[in-house]
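User: I'm putting together a small comparison set for a docking exercise, and I want a reference complex before I start. The sequence is below, and the ligand is magnesium ion. Could you produce the 3D structure with the ligand included, as structure tokens?
Assistant: Of course. I'll restate your input first, then give the structure tokens for the complex.
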Amino acid sequence: MPIKVENLSFVYNEGTPYATVALNNVTFEIQDEEFVGIIGHTGSGKSTLIQHLNGLLKPTSGKIYINGVDITDKKVSLKDVRKEVGLVFQYPEYQLFEETIFKDIAFGPTNLGLSEEEIEKRVYEAMDIVGISRELADKSPFEVSGGQKRRIAIAGILAMKPKILILDEPTAGLDPKGKEEILNKIKEIHDKYKMITILVSHSMEDIARFADKIIVMNKGRIEVIGTPREVFREAEKLEKIGLGVPQITSLARELQKKGVAIPEDILTIEEAKEYIVRYLRGTKNV
Amino acid sequence: MEHVINTQNLSFEYHAEEQTRHLVLKDINLQFEKGQFIGIIGHNGSGKSTLAKHFNALLLPTEGKVYVKGMDTKDTNHLWDIRQAAGLVFQNPDNQIVAAIVEEDVAFGPENLGIPPDEIRERVEYALKAVGMWEYKDYPPHMLSGGQKQRVAIAGIIAMKPECIILDEPTAMLDPIGRREVISTIKKLNKEDGITVILITHFMEEVVDADRVIVMDDGKVVLDGTPKEVFKEVTLLKKIGLSVPQVTELAHQLKREGFDVPLDILTVEEMVEFLCR
Ligand SMILES: Nc1ncnc2c1ncn2[C@@H]1O[C@H](COP(=O)(O)OP(=O)(O)O)[C@@H](O)[C@H]1O
Ligand SMILES: Nc1ncnc2c1ncn2[C@@H]1O[C@H](COP(=O)(O)OP(=O)(O)O)[C@@H](O)[C@H]1O
Ligand SMILES: [Mg+2]
Ligand SMILES: [Mg+2]
């Protein structure tokens, strides 16, 4: 289910004194199975962009094709779009409302009009996928930890079996351990089910490890787009808009300036180590 | 010497009346000196917020004592002196701002202390200038970004002329720019105005140049020292679910490869210097 966005612009409160241009001529494509990171600071347009991808917002101008179908066309049923494109909002735990965890996860599939057996099957599968014990099904979603609440919200979307999974800042406010757990879970789900996964974040370190493609947003425009390596080569541009690159990438850049044989687009500690070990062995032998 | 904050065998449980014991703080002994910048880290549930609330008498020890500038937090006669001396800033800026205009919000604390209007005006100006928000004095808080709101909340504390300011994950809900604004503001308050800062955070890079870093796990202090002393305990930190700076991790991996790398490298500059010396 490839995604194609063409010249997308969006203005909030158009025609009023409060008009805000939130997206300005945005164009990009996402291929099947891709893991995409969208990064940018608050107000850069990330949430506005992804809300267009499941039809929650209608473009002021521009087109959005999902699997070749223009979802901005009035004839397209948004219900069908939302069946395929699952969106997990930021701080989704605030949207849990049912009295049991089971009912909360069942909400989406119930709206799809599935049979009771199918709903039950999907709810338990989704709980397994996100790592919420089935024994908790009848507990209140308000009695579990913050990290667990967030998993429940993700399970609610997974139970709809979307072909495209979009998560808006799923690690916001979690501690390093909770963050690792959620990120690894998302990566695991992507690797297993191969759905297009779009992860919105403002942490480069989070995105650098997993993404096939990174879209850097700034003031409603795409500032840089490409593979993590391509994007991190633009370190100066990123720093100018207040994003920065992972610490290990800046180390590589600094070392390269000093004449050490190391590419400037290093992404992981392991990679850096390889070159540095080679460098240290080399200089020692001299 | 009198410490700004001094805990003596502090233990705490939320439901002390219940039969089963569930200590959230276990025998904490900490003395904080005036003018220091202290970082407290630990994963969720390790007891950081519970500890912070003991520093300004929002919670009282189940066992042991907490003294703020020598005043026992259990002594109700000193409650307002303690709250004035040690101000607490929370994670979510939206829950801390009470008034409809920035200036009024900052004046709220000193008004409650019964300070004369002229002095309040002076203090509000000083506090808003100190956090770089004076131009926004007439704004309604909801027009501000998260980082700006958090700076207004800090100004509200500064206007009380505290000895010490305690910030409980003040940047957790902010983006990188907001985080930078808040961190540089509190560093400046510490360096230039001599205010003691206790910063609770998950972000290791916010405490690499603190005077002292304290690591909490399961209600206990498990590490306490300079950032270099603390961050070189990579294995322990990872075991309790905390991360270390990427270059520190790299130093440890190089050591394992047999290179003679100092294990307390924290910054890119230090690593470059070591490798290219
Ligand atoms: N519901 C809304 N009404 C008016 N303006 C909005 C609304 N939501 C977002 N905006 C504005 O649109 C811009 C982009 O916001 P958003 O898409 O939320 O960015 P991000 O998710 O990157 O923080 C910002 O200027 C923001 O203030
Ligand atoms: N109001 C409360 N009532 C009962 N237990 C609480 C309350 N607040 C926190 N706790 C418990 O105390 C422990 C420490 O929590 P907290 O101090 O908030 O840790 P941290 O700030 O490090 O995340 C946790 O087990 C938490 O569930
Ligand atoms: Mg957003
Ligand atoms: Mg806390």
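Strands of chain B lie at 5-12, 25-32, 37-41, 63-68, 71-72, 86-89, 164-168, 196-200, 212-217, 220-225. The two ends of chain B are 43 Å apart (CA to CA).
User: Thanks, that's exactly what I needed.
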